[in-house]
Design brief:
This protein is mainly alpha-helical. Helices cover 80% and strands 0% of the residues. 33% of the residues are buried.
């Protein structure tokens, strides 16, 4: 099934048109066989087949390949499966939006694997602002990834600029499913921005009022809480948050960061 999905992702357009042609022939034979002459039925049948085939050939395969790796990242804090599939997918000839989404997710997994500079280099070279028609959700993810990369690399000024651009898009988006996908990122980004600017109580308030949806976001929140507690001199609570990160965070980067912070305060 995975091989078939990869084949369809690689050959989306030719596969779609070949299947449509085959379906049109079968449909024509069936309509003639049952002596159906209604133009409305013919048109509706063609629209239905074209739509269903587009979903099955052009949308479903990519979703199939990424669904489990995304869940593994968000729910189990394991970035490796998503890292490997996005690394492969970005080598395919995808549509602009599919390639952009995959490349942004690849950069996300790079940061989760601790390859911060590589992620930043790719992101800074993309410059999606110059591409007309880029969906706002992709811009928000792009800015958020850049903000995170800059922050982790120690460039707080640039991190604040990209973070504000991300939050502005998030605030302007209508309340819908797409915006909900960004909820956790917006909360963590807002709290990190407050922390970077010395507003520790504001950062803590943002985190404590949030209802984070997945383990990955909760781990990021705990890591930030630990740093806030350290600034406040509350080492006991900082250790508790770091212990949570070590027990639940991704082993490629989160756990390493938490152990380094824990060693420093000990």
């Amino acid at each position: 099934m995975t091989k078939l999905a990869k084949f369809l992702v690689k050959n989306k357009r030719p596969a779609y048109f070949l299947i449509i042609i085959a379906e049109a022939i079968v449909l024509g034979v069936a309509l003639a066989r049952f002596n159906i002459t209604s133009s409305a039925i013919k048109i509706l049948s063609i629209i239905f087949l074209a739509t269903a085939t587009y979903i099955l050939v052009c949308i479903a395969p990519l979703s199939y390949l990424t669904k489990k790796p995304i869940s593994e990242l968000n729910d189990n804090c394991n970035p490796e499966p998503y890292f490997h599939i996005t690394k492969e997918l970005i080598t395919y000839k995808l549509s602009y939006t599919d390639h952009l989404a995959t490349l942004l997710d690849y950069c996300t997994t790079l940061m989760e694997m601790g390859e911060l500079q590589k992620a930043y280099d790719i992101l800074s070279g993309m410059n999606i602002d110059k591409k007309a028609g880029t969906p706002n959700i992709f811009k928000a993810i792009y800015y958020n990834n850049l903000a995170s990369a800059c922050y982790l690399l120690g460039d707080n000024v640039s991190a604040d600029i990209w973070c504000e651009k991300m939050l502005q898009i998030y605030r302007d988006m209508p309340q819908n499913k797409l915006k909900k996908l960004l909820d956790d990122s917006a909360i963590i980004s807002s709290a990190e921005k407050s922390y970077r600017n010395g507003d520790y109580s504001g950062a803590m308030l943002t985190l404590n009022q949030a209802e984070l949806k997945n383990k990955r976001a909760k781990v990021n929140a705990s890591l930030l809480r630990a740093q806030i507690y350290i600034k406040a001199g509350n080492m006991e609570n900082a250790r508790k948050e770091l212990d949570y990160v070590i027990s639940n965070g991704n082993k490629c980067y989160d756990v390493t960061r938490a152990k380094e912070i824990l060693n420093n305060i000990n």
